[in-house]
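Researcher: Predict the fold of Fumarate reductase/succinate dehydrogenase flavoprotein subunit.
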Amino acid sequence: MSSVERQRWDVVVVGAGGAGLRAAIEARRAGARTAVVCKSLFGKAHTVMAEGGIAASMANANEHDDWKVHFRDTMRGGKFLNQWRMAELHAQEAPERVWELETWGALFDRTPDGRIAQRNFGGHEYPRLAHVGDRTGLELLRTLQQKTVALQQEDHRETGDHESRLKVFQEFTVTRVLKDADGRVAGVFCYERESGRFLVLEAPSVVLATGGIGKSFKVTSNSWEYTGDGHALALLAGAPLVNMEFVQFHPTGMVWPPSVKGILVTESVRGDGGVLRNSDGERFMFDYVPDVFKEKYAETEEEGDRWYEDPENNRRPPELLPRDEVARAINSEVKAGRGSPHGGVFLDVSTRLPADAIRRRLPSMYHQFKELADVDITAEAMEVGPTCHYVMGGVAVDSETAAAVGVPGLFACGEVAGGMHGSNRLGGNSLSDLLVFGRRAGLYAAQYAVSGAGGVVEADEVDAARAEALAPFDGGGENPYTLHQELQQTMNDLVGIIRREGEMAEALERIGALRERAGRVAVEGHRQFNPGWHLALDLRNMLLVSECVARAALERTESRGGHTREDRPAMERSWRPVNLLCRAADGGVVLERVRTEPVRPDLLALFEKEELAKYLAEEELEA
Ligand code: FAD
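Model: Structure tokens for Fumarate reductase/succinate dehydrogenase flavoprotein subunit follow.
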């Protein structure tokens, strides 16, 4: 077998979105020689698409805000299934991470007295999202890129080489995490997209920061990169994924024209006053406030409207319920025949804000609708419907260190990591998650690496990875695009926003059959930039992750957050202390039930007893 080029680093970060770059910066600052590998161009990660903002209790817009309120909102949003220590660290550290970003050059929108402005978002008690218009992710990533370059310039001054301690391998795709004979992480195997050449990066620490899984679904807000690679890499390396049944369907994606179906309409539209109406012109969300949230949301349109001016004395409008609630409500309205002409509902900001305010506060939305749908949102309502947006499930990690469970040297942060958001993520809590846990992952990965841990990549591991990557060139005639389309349709139709037992069982059968066909996937041509080959390799990941979602969704016989079962519509308190772990086995996936760690008493004390009684299982209340 021909030799594959090898390079030695201390830490390899897979992914250059917000989580990956924040991890890489911290690892480099902690003294580790750090390589970053990313599938697309440097600066083009999914994070640039984030619109609404970063959630952090800086209390600039409401002095009553603090980390405890943010923690409470996050736990409520996740229906108490969050890994509570992550939610605590996230709420405590998010403000510092935002301030830090500003010292690195981020330019957030300001309040009239010059502080960082914060906007309302669903499920957040106070205006909490620091933002840059509706292009916050772009500014976040730009700032992290700028910091990366600044560190490289520092290294150049000291060593004469910009890339001596921090190097970005752009347009390289990792297909395997490699381990040593003792089961410790030893590096990664990747290919360069343009040339097709293979490369092994040896390192005792590997940080997965690859983002989400949306490309397994037909209608999604996610970009082409979201093929669940990090989820699959972790599974194949022996780490479990936690609670993969929880997939967030954002309530407001574009529904028309078909070519743009699924593209996100930011929650900021509702945060800034936009309202949802059905075809009868009714603000239907007032009919969909669940019991657990009744006391916190307005009962009349008048009260909801007053809240924008006087939040102290009024309750928020139900358009700002957590995303899972709003998505289900829209789904029900459409099903009841009260949808818009193209199968969504109406989202109207044109009658709520002056045209120039809309153009100023929501510039991307204005252009998106004008250019893609020929709709002027300053004069007309948008048509919107649910779109697959975010995965709450992910690599099971230690809350403090972001270390993946059971695989020494493997770390995960950002959307690929599970636990933080429980069964449903609040808007704005991802960008803060990336910064908080990106920093932690980088720090602990560096500490682990420089402690002298980690072994040597075995030659047969490299040979196996190489053979696996080349297999589609000798495949048996299955077309990767056909298989991908069939998988997307299956996930959309059978494991989508509303789930049923029989359909999920059917999905598992279809996924099994697709996996078998994927074993014969064939591509033509050569290794130089060959999208068919790239997709053929991504298919393994999407199939594995889809099986995790379907298997866990079938197992959890209740509805909670991003998992709604028509045949089990209630949230069952007895399921609260249960996490579902997926592990790779025999080419597929097996499930394991594990108990969640009991929430620390001082954190439980932040909630009223009556509220806890709505969420916690009987035995947890008695304890
Ligand atoms: P990403 O930013 O997606 O980065 C993943 C990286 O991994 C990329 O560099 C990719 O190339 C790389 N990668 C993937 N697989 C491989 C591989 N096999 N080998 C090498 N590299 C690989 N959240 C908020 O908090 N606020 C918002 O306002 C908000 N708005 C959003 C709007 C949209 C349209 C979308 C889709 C999401 C939004 N989110 C928002 C969610 C948030 O943007 C994402 O959850 C977050 O950016 C994920 O960041 P990440 O660093 O985990 O992954």
